[in-house]
Amino acid sequence: MTDPIVRPPKKDPQKVTRPPELPPLQRSRAALAMSAAASRGAFELQCCKACGAWMYPARDACPECLSVDLAWKPAPDGGEVIAETTIRTTVDLYFRQRTPWRVAMVKLDCGPSVVCHLHGDVEVPGRVRMTAQLDKGGNAVIMALPAKRTPNMADDPELRELTASPKHRRVLVTDGRSAVGQAVVEALVNAGAALVFVGIAEPWKPYPGEDRLKAHENVQTFAFDLTDTTSVQDLAGEIGGKTDILINTADHVRPGGILSAPGMITAKDSFDVNVFGLQRLAQAFGPGMVGRGADGTNSAAAFLDVLPVYALANTPDFGIHSATAAARLSMLQCLRSEMRAGGVRVMSVFTGPIEDDWRQPVPPPKVAPGQIAKAVIAALEGGIEDSFVGDVAKDVATRFRQDAKVLERELGA
Amino acid sequence: MTRIRPNPRRPYENVAVAVPVSIPYVRYSVESAHWWIARALSELTKRAGIRPADIDGLSVSSFTLSPDTAVGLTQHLGLSPRWLDNIPMGGASGVVALRRAARAVEAGDATIVACVGGDANQVDSFRKLLSSFSRFAQDASYPYGYGGPNGSFALLTDHYMRSFGARREDFGRICVDQRTNALGYPHAIMKKPLTMEDYLGARAIADPIHLFDCVMPCAGSEAFLVTTLDIAKDLGLPHARLASTIERHNAFVDDPIQMRGGWAVDVDELYAMAGMKPDDIDLVETYDDYPVIVMMQFEDLGFCKKGEGPDFVRSHSFTNDGNFPQNTSGGQLSAGQAGAGGGYLGLVEALRQVTHTALSKQVPDARTALVSGFGMINYDRGLCSGAAILEGVAP
Q1: Tens digits of per-residue pLDDT, B258-291?
Q2: Could you give the 3-state DSSP secondary structure of residue A43?
Q3: Which residue ranges does the record assign to the Thiolase C-terminal domain (chain B) (predicted)?
Q4: Is some CB atom of chain A closer than 8 A to the CB atom of B214?
Q5: According to the model, what pLDDT value does residue A389 have?
Q6: Does the domain spanning B147-217+240-392 belong to CATH 3.60.70.12?
Q7: A93 touches chain B (CB under 8 A)
Q8: Are residues B148 and A116, on separate chains, in Cβ contact within 8 Å?
Q9: What is the pLDDT of residue A150?
Q10: I need a surface site. Which of A329, A367, A413, B218 has the fewest CB within 10 A?
């Protein structure tokens, strides 16, 4: 059984912050496909289209029949661990800071043998369940987990490196006025977050849910305006050094396309919140988080943005809103690369249309704030880079992967 | 489809191996691989009594020549061979170089082939070497704890111990006896005696691998000459006759973890070609980057059956005056591992022993030696294996 991690004591300001070293980064192009699957939380391996053989490590040709026609597919995740070791000495700077480190050889039920991280609760020899997760460098690694859940399983130190669990971490939620923001705060408290900082725009104006939000012991509210650079910098000055997870739930939504809603002011407002607001957040909080990527139990772990799935393809009835989402996605891609230096994950939770006043004309299914909150926690606890919440978001994501151009026609029909 | 039967191999009729050269190793050195290889070739020509221009065949193995290969080395060293080989097979390099050179000499493609293996070892070069070792290692083993070869062999050792009941003491016997042999070899890096107590009490590196299960990476080089028997005689060189060899890559792909090496595929041919049995071998030089692979070689080279390695070790002694002289200069575990030179160490030492020119303690009446090579943990297991039998020719 894993020992539960305990809430870390207050940081000693005289101690050197552990530098955020990264695990080995280099991968072949073929191996990147496993990272792409893992970014969505899937365990995929290569399978030969000609002879059906599963293979690992990533190849460019089938070792059974030499076919080059290979596909990445969801793979059976069962296996038998046949050997283990505990690495105690290594020349790699990342693992040097983290030894002892348990590693196993697992014979997969579908054939190949896999060198993998090994959860502390697995007995050798024995059955395991395999999972592919992104490591601190953003590449997929395979970990063998106990076949059945064990107590405090998520607290295993190797597994915690592969997630951004909110347990014992301090989290900023940017928009406490919205139902989505409030649902996320509630879920974080339940998931064991040590503190939740909540940004409130125009705090002198009352808002629904205010009493409930402020009733939580671990919740602190702050006056905060994403469209005001000084306000964002001020908050970062106050709590930036202890923000382990940042969750941006802000979204300025107005209906209308480019010709059908000609207001430049509305478009500017949307971009100011959705795109430049994200940029202000990243610029104010990002560097501090990057520096604290390996700072113990409550290291900086994730920068998560909840954004419309129409970032992938424009829905013309909310055309400008979709355009802000696309710009936002592009920003996140840039930020993901920049934050990797500190091992801090940049996560996207794509949602379908949310049940709110602005989207009354949008037909169901729509997403409830509670669903989004659940997806946010699942993304953090599972270390999932791209998650899609609600039926519409999943549907759009599937169509996008099949053919982005077809999706454009379907949404624009 | 027609099933193709492998061609029978022709025996070696006229291959001499001579002039064992070991340039003493150092733990760290600022010198380059080019420098270490040049020193070995210089020593080789001096001791053979030939000019560098007489070398018309060259075989090179080194991890640290980059960006050069054997080609760049010819110009760097002013050699003009008509036969050139570059063998990137790590611990199997010596045996494979010998195999190829032997056929070149027999065919008349070269008259005198210089085979050389060696590497630089500058501070931090081991870490850099590991990070770019192979695509599978880069993708699928180093991101997991980055134990390097220690991690890979820890898994193999753990599995072997579970499967066949080997204990740490069994591996310790190999390491302790090899250290005894090294104490008689002036070039060995390790100069202090090793007791079983020291071995068992050493710190863990990657369980069940402990400190004395690991080699010490260092800088150095090893070399020998391959030519015909009559030329060796004309030059007045003590030499050995090449009796037989084998080579195999990526054997037993269906084994879920390495439990045997490619030797097990070809071992019958090794003895048949030499007209010998395991009992006819006077000394054995195994590839010993970790003791578990030594134990597997005892099995796969026919000295005992699979799984009997632990018992074999318990009932034999491996010192130069023991009942199974093995790694008579201390092996890599005690002499050090000079990169690809590690694939030459056993061969060069065997050559000294069967020509009775040993620098270590001479194995009495040594006439035949079996030398084995093993190399290249591409992902989870060593892919290259080879072996050769040498027979000393009376002067």
Answers
A1: 999 999 999 999 999 999 999 999 999 999 999 9
A2: coil
A3: 268-377
A4: no
A5: 97
A6: no
A7: no
A8: no
A9: 96
A10: A413
Q: Is residue B395 over pLDDT 80?
A: no
Protein fold of A32-161? OB fold (Dihydrolipoamide Acetyltransferase, E2P) (2.40.50)
Query: pLDDT tens digit string along B163-220?
Result: 999 999 999 999 999 999 999 999 999 999 999 999 999 999 999 999 999 999 999 9
DSSP state of B217: B
* Residues of B in Cβ contact (< 8 Å) with A23: 143, 146
Predicted confidence band at B155 (pLDDT cuts at 50, 70, 90)?
very high
Residue among A24, A88, A102 whose CB faces B204 most closely = A88
In which element (H, E) is residue B113 found? strand B113-119
Two tokens, residue A117: 């991280």
**Chain B residues within 8 A of A58 when measuring between CB atoms:** 139-140
Are A378 and A384 in contact, with CB atoms under 8 Å apart? yes
Q: Cα angle at A356 between A386 and A330, to 5 degrees?
A: 30
CA closest to A85 among chain B residues:
B207
- Report yes or no: A24 at the B interface, CB cutoff 8 Å: yes
Going by their DSSP bridges, the two strands B209-210 and A113-118 should be labelled as unpaired
Per this entry, what is the length of chain B? 395
Structural domain boundaries in chain A: 32-161, 170-412
The two tokens of residue B41 are: 């070739």
DSSP string, B4-64: PPPPPPPPPSS-EEEEEEEEEEESS-S--HHHHHHHHHHHHHHHHT--GGG--EEEEE-SS
Mean pLDDT of B311-337: 98
Please identify, in words, the CATH class of the domain defined by B16-124+220-234.
Answer: alpha beta
Q: A105 and B151: CB-CB below 8 Å?
A: no
Q: Which of B134, B141, B146, B255 has the highest number of chain A CBs within 10 A, making it the mutation to test binding with A?
A: B146
DSSP B326: B
Q: Do A83 and B257 touch (CB under 8 A)?
A: yes
Chain A, nearest residue to B159 by Cα: A83
Residue A262 clears pLDDT 80, i.e. is over it? no
Nearest-CA residue of chain A relative to B143?
A24
Mean pLDDT within A276-290: 98
